[in-house]
Amino acid sequence: MHILVLHQFYTTDAEAGIPRFNILAKRWRERGAEVTVLSGSVNYITGVRRKTKGLFSKEIDEKNDARIMRVFSTTFGLGYRTFLGRMASYISFFIFALFSSFFLPRLDLVIASSPPISIGFLGWCVSFFRRAPFVFEVRDLWPDEIVELGYIKNSALIGATHVLEHFLYARARRIVVNSPGLKEYLITKKSVDAEKIGVVVNPVEKGVAEREESSLIAWGKKNVIYTGAHSFVYDFDILLDAAKNLPEITFILVGDGRQKPELLKRVEHENIVNVHFYPSVSRAEVPRIVARADAGVIPLGHMKLLSYIYASKTFDYMAAGKPIVFMGEGINAALIRDEARCGVCISPGDREGLEKALISVLSGSEDSKAMGERGKRYLEEHFSAEKLGDEYLAFLEKTVHLG
Questions:
Q1: Alpha helix segments (H runs only) across 102-132
Q2: Residue 137: Cβ within 10 Å count
Q3: What does pTM read for this prediction?
Q4: How far is the CA of 368 from the CAs of 251, 260, 323, 347, in angstroms?
Q5: Crossing angle of the two packed helices 83-101 and 118-130, in degrees rounded to 10
Q6: CA distance 390 to 358
Q7: pLDDT tens for residues 357-387?
Q8: All domains in the chain, ordered by first residue
Q9: How far apart are CA 156 and CA 293, in angstroms?
Q10: Distance CA 300, CA 346 (A)
Q11: Interior angle at CA 360, CA 351 and CA 232, nearest 5
């Protein structure tokens, strides 16, 4: 079976990013499937554009055995973090990816992995012209999330995006989401047939936590880490407030994003000496950094839609056997507090609760150590690459054979 994955922001292990299809492609290849990933040339974290030979270039992700076709996409100098720059990257990728898809051999299945939602329409177009079943993968709730964040305010554009969303849900042969919460949301809020939806969370490779510790960071005696995007869905201000009141704890923040420049200014202005920022690192480096920390923190803000979604860094912390302090509600809190029992959960905006939770998990007590071990064990039992890769492939084979 030849699977085409449309993933505009596919990143290798040498780059920062979420390694969902890196891991899945490797497992599917082991099970006999052929995998081609059609991706763009602009990195979604750094905004840097890779060079392509003409309209597209081919490469092999040697570690994960996926064939990658990078197609030309550009922000036209507008900058990826601007609205117009992102729109330019989406449109240019759509045009050149659709054109490039005609140069691929016979396809048995087309997976379009969103966001952005435009890639869903690209997936439907490719499946229509290439006569292959269309699977729509929904990893974030577009457009609802960007509307709630205020990135889109034009009512006509919001309405058009919702029309596109429902068109894709109706045309997709199957829909795959990466959390049970997303499935619930699509059923209750979008009226999607439950039988049409499959759930495959982001898998984790074995042995991640056993990799050597990182020496790239200046550590303190007690260290709490945050890894990932410095975006507006996270309440970093409350984290900095806590840092000011907990000088004995070193706060390590690794990553980039729109909030970071303002956070750097605040730390410098208020002389918060126990908070240290580091740039994004490759996926291969993340486990080594997390392995050295004493606990992980996830400070989500007040966003209703976040209650339906897993934060991917949760799995990084669990894989390393670290207790987690989670500020937020919903499915991620249920995983940490009730299912894996691997951390402490507090409500968004609860600064006092955040400080108490950090002190508790960094106390070195047997209870905090047990949290980390339970998280690691739960992850290995439920979210392994082998288990989830096989479940996803079985779902895809059923889609091809049964329609």
A1: 118-130
A2: 25
A3: 0.88
A4: 18, 30, 6, 20
A5: 10
A6: 37
A7: 999 999 988 999 999 999 999 999 999 999 9
A8: 2-203+384-402 (3.40.50.2000), 208-382 (3.40.50.2000)
A9: 47
A10: 10
A11: 35
